[in-house]
C-alpha cells in the first residue's frame, strides 16, 4: 500500500510544488488548507481548491481562526517586521497538519517551506524549531529543500532516496516558477501578491493601538476583523472613529453597528462612520465633523449628521473639519 502524506496547501506556489513532488514520488496525498482570518485578498482558499482539483487530491478546509488569534495575541517567539508571529503561526499550522495526519492514518506531513526564503521562519534553526515545537518532529518533510536538510522519517524508512528531494534555497522563485511551468501548474496565487494582513504596516499600526487601548485578551474576533476596513482615527485615548472609503466599506461598516455609534448623512452623499468607545458630546461632535470632511458637504457650511446607537438618535448640524486640519494626520492609524 502506498504511504500517505498530509500536505499543507495554502494556494501559493511553494506548497503546490511540494505537494506535486510528493505525488510524483508515488505517495498518496491529502491536502489541508487552513483559514486564519488574516489572508490578504480573496480566493486563496478557492485557489487551493483549484490546485487540489488539478493535482487530483482531496482537500480538507479547516478553520483555525480561534487558535490563530491566541497566537497573534501572545506569540511565544515574538513578531516579525509587522505584527506577524510567523514562527508561532508555522508551528500552529504544522501541529494542525500533524493532527490531520493522525486522523487520516497518514505517515508524514509535507510543507512548501524553502530554506532561507523568509528571514524569520525559514532559516535552518527556525525549521528545526517548527518541527520540534509542533510535535511532528522528523515526520515533517520540506520536499523543496529536503536534500539540504537532515534526513526525515520517509528517507530513513527507505520510502524515498535523498536525491528524490530538491535542493532549493533562498528568496529567488526562478526554479519554482520553471518547475510550475514544467508540471503544468498555473492556478497558484502569484508569489509577489503578499499573503498576510499581519505583514502590512497599516494593519500592524491599528492592531498595536487596539491592543494598547482594549487589552490583548479583550479584543474580540469581530474587532480584529474591523481593523481591516475604513480609515481609522484615534481622536482621544478612548475614542476611535472609523470612516468608510467607498460604498463597499460603508456597507461593511454598517454591519458592525451594534454597540457602536453610527454616523450618517441624510442630506448629502457621505460615508458611513463608526465611533468606538464612550464619547462625550464634544467627542461625538468632533467625530461627526471628521466624518463630514469625507462627505460631499460644502466645506464651510453646517451639514446634517445623524448619530445613532441602538434606539438612541441625535440629529446634529456641524461644519466639517477642514481637509488640511493638522490634527487629522496625527489621529490617523496607518496608511
Ligand atoms: S506571514 Fe502571516 S500567514 Fe505567513 S507565516 Fe507569517 S503570520 Fe503566518
UniProtKB/TrEMBL annotation:
Domain spans labelled Thil AANH: 3-131
GO terms for MF: ATP binding; CCA tRNA nucleotidyltransferase activity
Alphabetized Pfam families for the sequence: NFACT-R_2 (PF18297), ThiI (PF02568)
InterPro entries, per database record: NFACT-R_2 (IPR059101), Rossmann-like_a/b/a_fold (IPR014729), ThiI_AANH (IPR020536)
UniProt keyword list: ATP-binding, Nucleotide-binding
Residue span, NFACT protein RNA binding domain: 230-322
Protein name: Thiamine biosynthesis protein
Natural source organism: Candidatus Bipolaricaulis anaerobius
Lineage of the organism: Bacteria, Candidatus Bipolaricaulota, Candidatus Bipolaricaulia, Candidatus Bipolaricaulales, Candidatus Bipolaricaulaceae
Amino acid at each position: 500500500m502506498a504511504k500517505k502524506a498530509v500536505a499543507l496547501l495554502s494556494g501559493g506556489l511553494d506548497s503546490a510544488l511540494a505537494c506535486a513532488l510528493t505525488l510524483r514520488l508515488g505517495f498518496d496525498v491529502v491536502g489541508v488548507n487552513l483559514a486564519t482570518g488574516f489572508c490578504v485578498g480573496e480566493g486563496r482558499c478557492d485557489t487551493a481548491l483549484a490546485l487540489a482539483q488539478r493535482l487530483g487530491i482531496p482537500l480538507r478546509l479547516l478553520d483555525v481562526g480561534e487558535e490563530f488569534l491566541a497566537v497573534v495575541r501572545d506569540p511565544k517567539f515574538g513578531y516579525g517586521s509587522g505584527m506577524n508571529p510567523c514562527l508561532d503561526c508555522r508551528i500552529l499550522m504544522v501541529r494542525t497538519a500533524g493532527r490531520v495526519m493522525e486522523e487520516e492514518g497518514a505517515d508524514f506531513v509535507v510543507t512548501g517551506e524553502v530554506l532561507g526564503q523568509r528571514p524569520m521562519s525559514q532559516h535552518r534553526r527556525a525549521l528545526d524549531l517548527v518541527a520540534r515545537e509542533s510535535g511532528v518532529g522528523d515526520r515533517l518533510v520540506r520536499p523543496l529543500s529536503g536534500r539540504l536538510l537532515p534526513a526525515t522519517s520517509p528517507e530513513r524508512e527507505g520510502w524515498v532516496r535523498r536525491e528524490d528531494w530538491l535542493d532549493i534555497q533562498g528568496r529567488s522563485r526562478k526554479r519554482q516558477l520553471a518547475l510550475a511551468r514544467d508540471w503544468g501548474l498555473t492556478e497558484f496565487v502569484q508569489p509577489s501578491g503578499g499573503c498576510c494582513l499581519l505583514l502590512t504596516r497599516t494593519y500592524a499600526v491599528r492592531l498595536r493601538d487596539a491592543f494598547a487601548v482594549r487589552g490583548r485578551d479583550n479584543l474580540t474576533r469581530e474587532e480584529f476583523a474591523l481593523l481591516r476596513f475604513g480609515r481609522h482615527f484615534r481622536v482621544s485615548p478612548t475614542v476611535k472613529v472609523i470612516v468608510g472609503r467607498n460604498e463597499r466599506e460603508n456597507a461593511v461598516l454598517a454591519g458592525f453597528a451594534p454597540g457602536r455609534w453610527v454616523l450618517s448623512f441624510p442630506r448629502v452623499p457621505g460615508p458611513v462612520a463608526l465611533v468606538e468607545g464612550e464619547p462625550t458630546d464634544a467627542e461625538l461632535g468632533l467625530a461627526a465633523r471628521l466624518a463630514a470632511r469625507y462627505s460631499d458637504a460644502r466645506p464651510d457650511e453646517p451639514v446634517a449628521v445623524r448619530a445613532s446607537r441602538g434606539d438612541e438618535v441625535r440629529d446634529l448640524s456641524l461644519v466639517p473639519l477642514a481637509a488640511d486640519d493638522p490634527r487629522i494626520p496625527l489621529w490617523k492609524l496607518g496608511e
